[in-house]
Protein 1
Amino acid sequence: MLKLMGFYAPRNLRIVRGEGQYLWDVDGRRYLDCHTSHGVAFLGHRNPIVVEEIRNQLERIMVLSPVFDSEVKDEVTKLLEMILPKHLTYFYLLNSGSEAVELSLKLARRITGRKKFISFINAFHGRTMGALAMTWNPSYRKDYDPFPWEVEFLPYNDVGAVERAVDDRVAAVIVEPVQGEGGLSAAKPEFLKVIRERCDRTGAFMIVDEIQSGFGRTGVLWAYQRAGIEPDILVAGKSMGGGFPVSMVAAREEIGAKIEAGAHGSTYGGNPLALAALKGGIKALLEDHVVEKAAEAGELMGRMLERVASENPESVRGVRGLGLMRGLELRWSPTPCIQELQSRGVLALRAGLTVLRLLPPYMITRQDIEELGKKLNESLKTLASRKTT
């Protein structure tokens, strides 16, 4: 009997349909989706603009190597110019976040000629070998070393550690403005500024990983922009394609101009359907004012979570994250709470060891947020009562 490799613990839930911020199971029960496949469905399930663009592209061509020009590639390039920081003048499209991280590291390694990288405790950058080298969690790294490059992990938000560690042996510093898998810690502006300053001083590249935090999820287009800095390389993905596999690396002129043919490649990267999905994703972002709506909903969600935390001090240490990348730091494993929420029609996930992570689509409503708060309260109260009996 054929079996799927068990890399993820099953939820024992069969999903048959999705629309906007909701999913439905085989029995017709509706769930508020705050899991969104690890943040991918930020634009909602079956976003109509994305669906339309993919459907139209299916009628034209599905398979085309990036060596060829196409109308959809030209359209996507123009749309990317509207959302990418102006100092990032080169881009390349891939299929997953890990692939995009791999390319960003290869660019830094190839151009600087250096072999050392800086990452941070609790960082998550992917599971392919180069990206895994930058991922801190020892359980993910177990039995896979040696990795292709030397990595030093520093405490997140520790300015002094950055000042001491980033020297002229470092190819790049890679950092998440908000750590997703690692517990929803948000970078302090002075922390990102010091990384930028040390990279400028030593000739290292600053790589900002916005695979989960970018494209409006935290209430600004790119989360790093709160610090007023400019990265050398921006890595993005997840939300951009509205659920279709697509990721991106964007780089400064002095980086992109030095890359010659054959230095990297991807059979499926930037294929016509991915381009169509990205086109639809950017159009949805701009036409439906996604950033502004995410900022507004994120404020409501933040206030709701603060209330939940204050009403459940025996279970909750505090609130984490920004915008619609939020969570509750619990005093115990979030797994029982995730199970309780699922039984009440809410899908969530964990971050780190103790954080309940909530990643809803941007169209989540005030009523959804109020209902989520009610179900969080119910779940936490139920779990607390079990622990005292």
Protein 2
Amino acid sequence: MTLVITFLAAAIVTALWYAKAPNNDMRLGTLALMYWGATLMWCVDGFACLAEGEGFIEITDTAAMLDDAVLGLLVVAVGLAAWAIYLVAKDPKKVLRKSLV
């Protein structure tokens, strides 16, 4: 579930980034790269599970699926928080500079 949730977040943000491509004020490409990196990380984790003889994605245990879903949502939330910190640091619209001056 973690892989599915991060993949969906990456796909949605990538579509938004592509729709807003000429205007890159909100740096959606950075957020998309964060989510694609997380998706790649979960894919590597899935392949490591396959190498150990386990399943790629756990779908038999409901409690494990719920835990994975919560972890996936947490990853998406932490990605949004990191992106917000990045936006405040970069200040692409110069809002922070105007308010401090």
Protein 3
Amino acid sequence: MTSDIPTIQRATLDDYESVARLHFLSHTVSFAPFVSERWLNSRRLDDYLSGWQETLGSAADGESTLIARNGDEAVGIVRVARSEVPEFELE
């Protein structure tokens, strides 16, 4: 039996498939009511797999990907990275 509370840890390169599948599902299932069918159909799991393999294999300082697991099942991901957006002032 698995716990109702997932464990959270830093994702490693070994986690790239689980992370990619969750990210792919978030775009193809969760976004479906809000995006065009053309955009939705343009999503390819292979693109997510290669992207996450690269991301997790070359993490820089200040970047981190966390993965939540319920038992052996990956149930969530969070990516934290520095923004490339220029700073701005709020009025």
Protein 4
Amino acid sequence: MRNNIAERRLDREWTQADLARALGVSRQTVISIERGRFDPSLPLAFLIAQTFGCRIEDVFIAEKTT
């Protein structure tokens, strides 16, 4: 699964720390999610989408497997 969190965050001129504060998580968590090393829980994924004012499918993109 990939995501576009970093692009959305930068469009708002937010730092990783700004986003972490908005989500109530650590900056390390934001870094891990942005880099695809960690998939957030469903409630956190919904909160991320809500924070950016979009749908969860707009932030998280499932990669096709063959």
